[in-house]
Amino acid sequence: MAKLGGSQALLAMLVGILVFQAACRVSCFDYGDALDKTLLFLEAQRSGKLPPNQRVKWRGDSGLKDGFLQGVNLVGGYYDAGDHVKFGLPMAFTMTMLSWGAIEYRNEIVRLNQMGHTLAAIKWGTDYFIKAHPQPNVLWGQVGDGVSDHYCWERAEDMTTPRTAYKLDPEHPGSDLAGETAAALAAASLAFKPYNSSYSSLLLVHAKQLFSFADSFRGKYDDSIQCAKQFYTSSGYSDELLWAATWLYRATDDEYYLKYVVDNAVPMGGTGWAVREFSWDTKYAGIQILLSKVLLDGAGRAYTSTLQQYQAKADFFACACMQKNDGYNVATTPGGLVYVREWNNMQYAASAAFLLAPKSNLRISSADYFLGKNPKSMSYVVGYGQNYPIHVHHRGSSIASVFALQSVVGCVQGFESWYRRPEPNPNVIYGALVGGPNNNDAFFDDRSNYEQTEPTISGVAPLFGLFSRLQSLSGNSGYHAPVSQKPNPNTPVTTQNLLHADVPVHFFHSITQSWTIGKMTYYRHKVIIKNTSQKPITDLKLKFENLTGSLWGLNPTQEKDVYELPQWLKVLKPGSDCTVVYVQGGAQAKVSVPSYH
């Protein structure tokens, strides 16, 4: 094997080729808990008819007529931030990043028993994109508008603001938005491929059509959807076209897409732009790192020379983030946080940390800063740790739930009775990454301070992959809830309080075999159930949701989907485990503990 040069070695670290020493893996933070909370935040941002297994119980159905005035069903998707607009560009970027994390860290996510929640989060977005793409050259890019929405402070369930939908078509192009949506669907097709091949193929059909639409009818989306310009102004569409082609190459292995990024490297800025930002608007650093991986994997072939130029720009981004660019570095706060923008800076720090996830010093310092290792000793991920923002700029979080206060909270009443109140938000919006501190690490926890206290879905999405990576490096394989939330040992644990309970049973999930019959791929799943406590466990009940195949190793009970230990294993001793095997096509089953003693 030929030796890697300095540039190649750096990129090898970026894409996770190198194995890090155990000394780099020490941390006092529970990244598995933080990861779980990021998925909870996405559940809190859901629009549409909520599913029965919705874990964020203070949310209700909303936006059930989105698109109906325009004769299209646009129910579903995600609200962008503390408001109720469904902005297409950041939502698509969110799904791309969530899918990228699921692809790169699939084994880690499976070991954490989070793949079910992960695919559900992605599918909530991609199902919406499929609805929004009813014809090859039509994409509905937004529902609601920021101006009218921001005049009201009300719950999503009470919305009275206009739900106007806006579309892109050949006469009203939006190559940036269509390109990012194509990238999201291509990335999601890879995330779903091991679990639901038919859905993966469907996503790829839409991704290819959207890329063709974006490339054939060029223009900036906010010239066509002008009400988006005030909130998510696009700097251009060239990077999204390269980004979409890069993801389509990765999803299809079709040389057409690789040739596209090579042929357009110069005119679209792929090898010209040396950037210090990666975000919902600027994708160049992500493109450059993905294409560097193609080179490092030995798949460059005739395109090696151009891919090396992409690689050089990826090196620049990495060095800028690590303060090694001789003055051309990303700015940082005195506490060491990457600082790019005054408004919601944390989203830029999170995206940079994700791209450099395999590089231990930056990823850990950034992640730990997010979780509390900073001058304020505050976790900027809501609900994590003991000290986090409690006046989050978020309508649903700041007003009592519709299940607690069933009367309608009007547009003005929301401002007068809830927005201005000094008390903490009544609903903790777990997993929200707020905008964060200023350039001097100062943070003011005030609901009106939207630059610092408002969360966004595009800011949280990169944390998912980052925390997945760090949890695997920390040496822990299961989810650990905070000790302060440990239940009374005499109280049976139910599925309602399990989410934040320190249940002394951990699941280690793996796929040991797969085979294809016709068009269906089947997987042999092995689940190791381990007693991690110091006491024996009896009367253990296990619930297997979404189980469609046969299961071995447990006895069924009279309750639906609930199983118990076999007769010969009535007691699970401290440190001991038992193994369960099941076979099915599609996604893995969701395993939980309804009760134990």
UniProtKB/TrEMBL annotation:
Which terms in the GO cellular component ontology are assigned?
extracellular region
Does Secreted show up as a keyword for this record?
A: yes
Organismal lineage: Eukaryota, Viridiplantae, Streptophyta, Embryophyta, Tracheophyta
Q: Which biological process, per GO, is one annotated for this protein?
A: cellulose catabolic process
What family classification does the UniProt entry report for this protein?
Belongs to the glycosyl hydrolase 9 (cellulase E) family.
Task: Tell me the leader sequence span.
Answer: 1-28
Q: Which PANTHER family would you find in this protein's record? A: ENDO-1,4-BETA-GLUCANASE
> SUPFAM superfamilies from the entry?
Six-hairpin glycosidases (SSF48208)
Q: Which UniProt keywords apply?
A: Carbohydrate metabolism, Cellulose degradation, Glycosidase, Hydrolase, Polysaccharide degradation, Secreted, Signal
Q: What is its EC number?
A: 3.2.1.4
InterPro entries noted in UniProt = 6-hairpin_glycosidase_sf, 6hp_glycosidase-like_sf, CBM_49, Glyco_hydro_9
Task: Enumerate the spans annotated as Carbohydrate binding domain.
Answer: 505-587
Query: What molecular functions are annotated in GO for this chain?
Result: carbohydrate binding; cellulase activity
List localization entries.
Answer: Secreted
Catalysed reaction, written as an equation: Endohydrolysis of (1->4)-beta-D-glucosidic linkages in cellulose, lichenin and cereal beta-D-glucans
Could you identify this protein by its name? cellulase
